[in-house]
Amino acid sequence: MGTDSTLAGKEVPIIGTDVFRWIELSVPSSSSNIPTAVDGTNATTIAPPTVDDRASCFVLEDPSAYLIWRIHKLQPHALELLELNASKELPKAGLRFIFPYQLCPFAFVCKNEISRNSRFPYLLYVLTVTGVAYLLKIRNVSAYASSALFPAEDLFELNVCDYVSNHVPITAVTATAGCVVVGRSDGSVCCFRLGVIDTSAPGFVHELRDEAGVSRLWGLMSRGKMVGAVQDMEISELHGKRFVFVLHSDGTLRIWDLSSHSRVFNHTVTGATFRRLWVGQFDPDSSTIPLSILYKHGLDEELEMISLHSIRYNFGERNVFSMDPSVQNITLEEGQCLDVKITLDKIWILKDDELVSHMLTTNVEEVEAFSYALQEEVVADQLFQSSEHQADEILQIACSIFSSSKEDVVPFISSIFLRKLLLPGVHHNAALHATLAEYSRHLPESDLQALTADGLKQEVLSLIEHEVGSEKLSILHSWKCFLTRYFHNWCKNNAIYGLLVDSSTDAVGLIRKSSVSIFRSLEDIERIVEDEVGELTGLVDLLDDDLECEILVELLRCVMSFSQQLGKTASSIFYESVLTAPVISSEDIVHCIVKILETGSCISGPNEKELIDHKSLRKLSAEMFLSLQSLYRKASAWSRILNVIQGFLKFLVPQKIIQNFDTEVSSNINSSIIVHTTYQISKVMFESAWDFLLFLSYLVDIGGQVHLSHDDITKIQLEIVPMLQEIIFEWLIINFFAITPSAPATTEDFNSKLSSLHIDCNTGKQLWNEKLGRRDFTLAFILLLNVRSSSTDHGHLLKRFPNMQSFVNRMRDFISWIIWGQSGGSSNFLSRSIDLAFILFKHGQYEAAEQLLMMAEAHLLKEKTSQSIQESDGGWCIRQHLLGCCLLAQVQCGLHTTQKDNKVFDAIRCFFRSSSGNGASEALQSLSEDVGIPYLGFSGCASTAAWKLQYYQWAMQLFERYSISEGACQFALAALEQVDEAMKDENNPVNGSITTTRGRLWANVFIFALDLGRYYDAYCAIVSNPDEESKYICLRRFIIVLYEQGAIKILCSNKLPLIGLVEKVEQELAWKAERSDISAKPNLYKLLYAFQMHQHNWRRAANYMYMYSTRLRTEAASKDYQGSSLMLQERLNALSAAINSLHLVHPAYAWIDPPANGSSLLGEHYPSKKAKRIPEDHSDNDAEPERWQSCIDVEKLENEFVLTSAEYKLSLVNVKWTFSGKDGALSDLAELLVNNNLYDMAFTILLRFFKGSALKRELERVLSAISLRCCLDKVESTWVEEHGQLVTSSKLEMVVHGSPVTHHTTPQTDGSSCWATLKIYLEKYKEFHGRLPVIVAETLLRADPQIELPLWLVQLFKEGQKERMSGMSGRESNPASLFQLYVSYGRYTEATNLLLECIQSFASVRPADIIRRKRSFAAWFPYTTIERLLYQLEELTRKGHMVEQCDKLKRMLLSSLQNHLKTLKVDSEDAISVSS
Predict the structure, then answer these.
(1) Rounded CA separation 1471/1473 (Å)
(2) φ and ψ at 751, to 5 degrees?
(3) Is 525 in contact with 651 (CB distance < 8 Å)?
(4) What is the pTM (predicted TM-score) of this model?
């Protein structure tokens, strides 16, 4: 039989089967008599171990389900169990049972028909290599927790070794519900009714033997004819009876009846080494049972073969089985046979590299083999692993296309590879995780699975960029290495295990290591392309004769030559350029590739590889030229060839199927298969159309060389190429739906989703929410759920996997629905794209809807370059309207600032374009509320202006709802432009007058501009508002917002034209200031001050600052803030600003009104000056004088400023004081200030508020107080200050002995500072009161009679004595006053010294001054006081106190006076002589 096979189908992966969560269940063991090895494994192995990966599937009838089990050779202790239901969602978790010993490569899972307990729907039979059989009663997956122990009560355990004599090895095992059958190396077979009856009950174990009679234990008696070891077994059920088919190693085939435990068939085949046995489904029509045996021929041990036998049966009084003599042998030339399944008419042979089917027939010579493409081939092609040059070609073509912008090459190439990597069926979670681990990216597999498509792209792209940066590799080399590693890991993690066959529906699937897939039949175009133009299935009706068939065959060969050279690579670049933001048009891509094919090179500077590519391309050009010449000679004219091309292109157009059924499609595994089938076929269709576009472009380019006429070129360019572009666009859109992951759901879209899917419970909402955003849940799933199916087998599809052709039929329905709609009524896909975009929008797929509409728009522009792109039915307007809604909805999904701004601007543009298109009013108002987009909510707009006014207001409200003030503002302004014209129409739907409408719109403009921080525009909107009430409301809001945003100072600048609104602005600011917290920032009183200063209203500025000061004082008092220095500082600043403002006013008007609810700080205790009186003709108004009396002028403000300053100074030293206004309060304040060393402030108070004698009195009190403080802080009397502030010691010893008695003392800084302070203020203020030195000296002496008066104080008494002839007279503080103080306080020594000094000074005048001294009354001395001094000295002498010293002083004093009197006598005589 020939080995050639025809491609009949392709593998379709069930997307999502690679991401199951496995719940691990440890199975306990009670077999304690099994010896254990040191490493923990069983030391006694009597059953075959698992050396190859094994998997199988059990098909349940009711309920319909597929139970798949897997045993990995690298994990022989574990068995994975997975339940799939074609009519339900893909399960999230499976069960992984961990057994204590390694498992045999066998498992049997079935429906629980023993107990029929709903708690345990399934049974699982396994056998370990130690001979222990397990029966597990399986619960639903939801009943198990991860990492739990399998319940012991759900487990039956049987140690087969207890029933085996001499430990004969077990070589085969099989099972059915309630029975486990084992075969041994001695050829014996035994069955155990495990789980049906107790192990100790009679009939639990039976040995299948030739002798009749009761069952006996093995080895107790002879078994008749010896046979070889049991090689394989399988149980089959016929007419309610179970038969076990046993294949022995010597070729003996036996059939045993399990009910009677008797042999019913025996046949021997020789001449081969037998390996496996498979029994097919019996055929009731022919009464045959097909079975196949895998063997190796004796002549060639490396060559595997399968022999197909038919066993006839006749069930009468006796069960008679006979072997059909005809044998069908199938040679397996390459690859290892992994699994075989037999159905009624076919045998399915799974090898490690392909799946092949053969028809079951008696005519051996006519058996045809059919092959089925595996996913490995598809993944290798997508990842550029089929040819080592494909990736290089991408770089070369990209560099040629982006020759003017080289920086776009790298991201474009990365985008292509990333898209290929994440394609459904190519992306595999475990493979990607393993690949990332090889690059030291140890991301947990669960975290990797949770990443979105964008997250995966970022992860992979960062890895590639790191490789390029660290290893200095090219981006292409890094991607090639990554994809090669990924493909290796993909193949490793998707190793083929076994077949899944459902005989009831002829469905065939594949069980892989970590995924499951289903096979489908080929579409007609796939048979043509994949089979290298082997047959023109489906094309015969499109062609007129055999010649046209030959022409088409030659054409297809030419097109495929193009495709094999650069077509697939070029299609990837074209596809990426369309789906991403295109930097180059598709026409430019086609032109560039055609140029490469024509010239044979794409970049300059050729190396060795490029020279080889150049030769290959030149060879292709030459062969193509010869083929086209031959084709032209065969057809005689290019017109006929072009007609054939047009006929074939009709074959590529998506079929239109009228769907009359009304059956809803649910989301299940079958839906997933349909979606992926759609992707596979759309990809082939797209690439086929693309290859023809390249071919025709090349043909036009070399038209002159192949006799192509001008008319032919025109036909290609104007008829065929547009048709091709339409086909490419439609299949590209279908492909886009099939591979683009859905976006995650947003909360605001739940209601629309629930209403559209009829989900009425929270569980349904949650499930839908979980699906959206998953990488395996593409846009096509969302669209598929809206399809009303027309497939006649749809009801069956809901329960089982259908046959291979059913998936293609369902795919055709789906594609027809996408392109043509439910009833096929769409005239073109551009109009249909609107309906699809509505569906996507309703389900929250805003970006996908935008991409769809943008691609439709680009295609429309390409189609209608010479005419208007606006359809008369308003379709273009609807697309623009919907596109704007999509862009606006995306803004709410957390975009970055730049991207968000771009979306907003694009949305604004779309809405403006939509409103101005042809038929916009009718088309957009006809949209119903249930289409999913924001509803317009108005109708009946007769005129264009009324329509635009309503539409712009709707757009304004829409942007406002999304808090996008930019768009809302623009549409409000646009609506304003339409008001006048729209209101002229009596039938306009707008309520209200023009003024009201404009006022409302201007108010909206104001709000939006304010939100955007455009304060100038907001103010202009206020000024432009014709509605006065609305205007003032906006103005108040304007001021409030400016205040809250800290931009209130703009009112004081020249940016806003406040003409006509100055008073209103001031009123609003004042109103706001009165009701705002005084501590709020910015301060509105200060703002009002600045505002009025800017307007040159000095008095009003002063008034607001005084109001601020009053508020501060009032609130400080009410909140006990009197001690707050900050509050007082603010009051000082306010008063200072008010004073400065009034100084700018003419003195006659320099006054302000007092606050309405407050009064001046001084109150009635200090009468204020009234302002300049008005003319006397107003004097008859009695109210005016009262008003004048209540005015506050500069002097009153200054008084308050001084008092507040004093309060502030005291607060700095933590002294609380508040002016009470009582008599003596100011005197007490001065004293308080002095007590706290605030001397400047104290004197300021005195000079400000006291005049005349009162001032002198207060000065005396203050300086007396300072003098007393000096006495308290006095230094020792022997202290001699460095700066001469203190007199030396004046004790009697100084006068008597002439030298001071000094003592070592330490300077006292506080005392020295106090004396210095006294000196400063006494010298400063003695001009105000001449007796202040006397008061100070008297205070000091009164406090301490023995105190040493400071030298500077003594000098103050001697000032004015420059003319020595004046004696001791002079101003109020003269030497005589000091002399009297000395005498009064017993300071006789100082008094004597002072008198002697003055007399000596009088006597020692210059000769020139003698004549002046001799004038009458020129000199005076306090003679009375001198007499008192002499009397005191005499009293001291009389009392015996200091006699010697007093006598001496008395003698000195008398001597000096005697001389002085003589001088006076002479002067008097001289004066008389002169006068006479």
Answers:
(1) 5
(2) -60, -45
(3) yes
(4) 0.76
